[in-house]
Amino acid sequence: MCLLCVAKSSSWSSPRRAFLLLAGAAVATPLLAQVDVGESSRLRTLVPAAELEGAASKQYVQMLEQARAKRALAPDSHLQLQRLRAIASRIIPHATRWNDRARQWKWEVNLIGSQQINAFCMPGGKIAFFTGILDKLKLTDDETAMVMGHEMAHALREHARERIAKSQGTGALLSLGASLFGLGQIGDLAANVGTQLLTLKFSRDDEVDADLVGLELGARAGFNPAASVTLWEKMGQAAGGGGAPGFLSTHPTGPDRIARLRENVPRVKSLYEQGRARR
Ligand SMILES: [Zn+2]
User: Fold this and answer.
1) Is 151 a catalytic site residue?
2) 95 partner at 20 to 30 Å CA-CA among 112, 150, 219, 268?
3) Best mean pLDDT range from 21-35, 170-184, 216-230
4) 81 pLDDT exceeds 70?
5) pLDDT digits (tens, 9 = 90+) for 92-150
6) Angle CA(15)–CA(19)–CA(25) in degrees, nearest 5?
């Protein structure tokens, strides 16, 4: 995306948004969004959302069981986990603006003991943070909310559906579709797709989309959007320190990313002030 275009187009004067408003086609883009992102990709509709969310849920349970077996799953009483859940509970009420399916999602937040700098939100609202991202980057609540908002945005904007639609052969997609009618082997396919979910690498456009939607989600929940800038600066420093598995390998940071966020902070400032007043 051209930085200049982002700077010049306001939410209301953008011809694309005006068209969407007129056409009533902004199904996946809330009309009152302050950040300028388009509709979710139509390609994603090739992968049934309910099936993918079911596969993600299974994969999430499996991952938690593995962590529990290694005594690496934080108990409910863990202070960092309580902090994560408190942050999530403030952001979640704003999620349906971006995806109506989120009304039915059973959101979960867990903390895994691992030195990896990592966090994710699987389709259907299954969130996990690794202790490494909180400890190594010494994230403030605002910065943590920006990571969470970013990851929730990937799920809400259904980037995994789009990625899988692009990566799967047509045959596999047809089988996944057929399974809806009781014809396919959904068990195996769901397991395969579920495994993929943990290693998905999103496109650059998906990352821009998640940055901006996440920024707005966090601001609406009353978290300081300026923290998105310090967050990515910290990520950059961590990446520069060598050895960057997990999040950093799938989320390259750089001047473009930080400049785009910095430019968008003023757009969500009033949302942040309203969100903070509600706290
Ligand atoms: Zn991302």
Assistant:
1) yes
2) 112
3) 216-230
4) yes
5) 999 999 999 999 999 999 999 998 888 999 999 999 999 999 999 999 999 999 999 99
6) 140
What is d(CA 182, CA 239) in angstroms, rounded to the nearest whole number? 46
Q: How far is the CA of 185 from the centre of ligand 1 (A)?
A: 31
Q: Among 17-21, 74-78, 176-180, which stretch is predicted with the lowest mean pLDDT?
A: 17-21
Q: Residue 252 — left, alpha, or beta (φ > 0 → left; ψ -120 to 50 → alpha)? A: beta
Query: How far, in Å, from the CA of 4 to the mean position of ligand 1?
Result: 22
Q: Which of the following is catalytic: 151, 162, 207, 216?
A: 151
Task: Please give the distance, rounded to the nearest whole angstrom, from the Cα atom of residue 22 to the centre of ligand 1.
Answer: 31
CA of 182 to the centre of ligand 1 (A): 34
* Mean of the per-residue pLDDT values of the chain: 79
